[in-house]
Amino acid sequence: MSLFSNPFDANSRLACGCGRHASQAEHERAAQAATPSATDNAVEQAVMRALFPQDALRRRFLRAVGSSTAMAAIASIFPLAAAREAFAQSTGPLEKQKLKVGFIPITCATPIIMAHPMGFYAKQGLDVEVVKTAGWALIRDKAMSGEYDAAHMLSPMPLAISMGVGASRAVPWTMPAVENINGQAITLSMKHKDRRDPKDWKGFKFAVPFDYSMHNYLLRYYLAEHGLDPDTDVQIRSVPPPEMVANLRADNIDGFLAPDPVNQRAVYDGVGFIHTLSKAIWDGHPCCAFSASKEFVTTMPNTYQALLKSIIEATAYARDPAHRKEIATAIAAPNYLNQPVTVVEQVLTGTYADGLGKVLTDPNRIDFDPMPWQSFAVWILTQMKRWGQIKGDVDYQKVAADVFLATDAVRLMREAGLTPPAETNKTFSIMGKPFDPTQPEAYLAGFKIRRT
Amino acid sequence: MRSMQYWRATFLSVALFLAFLLLWHAATRPDTGGAAVDPAYAALVGNAAASGSKTPFPGPAEVGEKLWQHVKDPFYDRGPNDKGIGVQLAYSVARVLTGFGLAALVAIPLGFLIGMSKTVYRAFDPFIQVLKPISPLAWMPLALYTIKDADTSAIFVIFICSLWPMLVNTAFGVGAVRQDWLNVARTLEVSRLRTALQVILPAAAPTIMTGMRISVGIAWLVIVAAEMLIGGTGIGYFVWNEWNNLSIANIICAIFFIGLIGMLLDTLLARAARLVSYRE
Amino acid sequence: MSHAFLQVQGLGKRYPGRNGQPQPPVFENIDFDIEQGQFVCVIGHSGCGKTTILNVLAGIDDTNEGVVIMDGRQISGPSLERGVVFQAHALLPWLTALQNVEFGVRSRWPAYTRDQVREHSMRYLDMVGLAHAAAKKPSELSGGMKQRVGIARAFAIQPKMLLLDEPFGALDALTRGTIQDELRSIVQQTRQTVFMITHDVDEAILLSDRILLMSAGPYARIAESVSVDLPRDRTRASLHHEPRYYEIRNHLVDFLVDKASHKE
Predict the structure, then answer these.
(1) pTM of the model
(2) Is residue B184 within 8 angstroms of chain C, CB to CB?
(3) What is the ipTM score, two decimals?
(4) What is the dihedral of CA B218, B222, B224, B225, to 10 degrees?
(5) What residues of chain B lie within 8 A of the CB of C157, using their CB?
(6) Domain locations in chain B?
(7) Which tens digit of pLDDT belongs to each residue from A136-182?
(8) Domain, as residue range, for C20
């Protein structure tokens, strides 16, 4: 379920199961095309969630009174227009106009990157320099030292930084928006094209970009579900994405779970084939995040808001399949991704060569939805605990709430004197197994293969 | 009138180069994969994958073309992440000269002091011996952690790696000055400072210059590696960026330029060394 | 005894032995005087410490016992008043011949202007017959020429006393002869006080007013002081015609053959 779906539509699920189905998405996009801007919907959605914590109740209400009546009724008790306006415009002068945002040249960072050439930053009065960075560790260091005002990060990283895991000290970090969902794939070396059953993968060497990444957790989940222990039956190592294709070619690794365009590039160069999209493992999984330090968020609220707005608008623009080709051309340039345009295009449009001679179509191969659902955070924390990256007791809800910032609409609502919604969680299921964010320990205990 | 030997040597060099080009061309001819694919698929993948093989190592023609592209427009600037090769090289050279210059400022006076006194030499020796062999890539994380700023860290790493040859050579050169010359200065009642500047320095100058030559070579080596780690600008970043794009041809171009600049730096210092050399 | 210009009293030198065992002294009880304007030579076998004594006089070495007094003051350390011509010319190889002499001149008269320094240095280079080689570096000069530059440098600072350490030892016979003549004429002109070490008996007789004979070490000492009372205007060509020449010469050679080689 996306941040942008119309909350006044009885058919739309605000808190549905494992994500959208193609038809639902189509419906929502069509609806969105005819309705007011992305940010307006975000506000209304937040309001609806506050008033109707249980989605089923909301849908019954709407079915009973019809959406226009509902709108009028709600508007009479809650100044939607004011909330809309409050969020849609800056609440004050920008504290800082020249900003530096770091990114890693992968398609996950599409909203951050495209906002530069396509003018989304400039629209908010910001002069943003998007700086290509050499690696995750470096982007983390530069973000923590303040050289970057905000940065493209892997979703688990803000959690790790806030908890002081894998870094020298704990610094409160926030993740106001998810950059993309889906957009990864498991790619195997060409020589394994007849060995696609995971049970045959004992002894394989896999690569992931970083230890604290969705790639690592997804790969481990996938392997564990097929009965392989990721720490003893296979080897998983961290390799920077640009080196993955070269390593695959040199037979140093048998496969990788990597962000695009690495997978498509492997196909383009005839080095590997795409075994499965990450979408097939968990449709709607978060991947990369737009993150900022808590200090930035609290000391420069207007700038932060403007930045967030440009990202949200860019994300909304990117969601529309009609725009994907244009975006691919814009971000493939040497200044940004530095890849052949066709590679980026195949990733963004979802019509791609799979490496084994077939052309496949999957428009949701990568998608963009900025809502930082706190249940994502809880899931990531359970996996971090599962594989021994964090030890001891974790206050899942607190950490999730602190790091994965709920939308600004929630904050604005609090300022307007209303009680914010208690629910910023949703349930989903991964490879058929449901996840209830309110029962993290039970979920964790349900896994056969784990380290704790 | 150049000698016969000069022309023979030149001819041999050119012949070797041509032979190498020929071998390279022969080794990188694309092999036909054999598998036929449907045209829609072929349109989506690279030329090699379309015929069922892997993208090959680029041949000399491809590299030559890329080289020409770079040389044609070396100073363009299309944003923070995309600049011409001339600009990148300039950044790298600037960093090298800064780090190297700072190292010289520290190494030569310190080397002087160490060379002039046996006690001081023995006191410093263990530290020098331990720090000398540390690889620049090991200093990098330490620098990033404490200094935090990537550019300053790179310059620091160059500083700490190019310090040692100059330090050791200066100390050695100063310590090995002929006692006769020092006696001349003594009997002429030359002050310690004047002796240091007018006798010891010129006497040790050739050894010091050798140290500087070695150091500049090391500094140039280090900067490429350092820039690959920190990104941003510079020839090392250029290599990393092209690595992202798996553009081996561009990487070969970069290697060529790296070698060229390295040679230029060394030649400059060799010339300078000749100026201060003397025959006994 | 009237106050001599240079008085050497009771010099003794002992090197520390290995493991602290006391070694016999190289030389001891060295006493001699030099009057102003005198040319004194020291002759003796190698190892008797002649160079050490010269270094002590130059101020770049010291002894365990004894004292050296020049012009009423005790010597402690090197001084521009005592110019040295070293055994190996010790020219600074990165400077030209002229610049080497200028180096000395500038040290002596730091207030001189560049032109004054130049003019003064050229004068002394000319005196040793090397005006034409002023712009040459030492590596471009022959052994003899290098030694002459060294002499020019030492003279140019107009020291009260000149110390020469076997200055012509490395030269061939022909060159040696020429330079000896030159040195003799310069010394006569300038009335320079000179202390010189040499192996060459004929050279000593030609140049000096007095010859000190040192016995061999250990326990070396000044065995004898021979007065060379031959005419002042003697030349190399005419030397062996002097009646007392062979008397003095034989005496010296006898000494070198027996006494210098015996330990007494």
Answers:
(1) 0.74
(2) yes
(3) 0.86
(4) 140
(5) 188
(6) 85-276
(7) 888 888 888 888 899 998 888 888 888 777 766 788 888 777 778 88
(8) 6-81+159-261
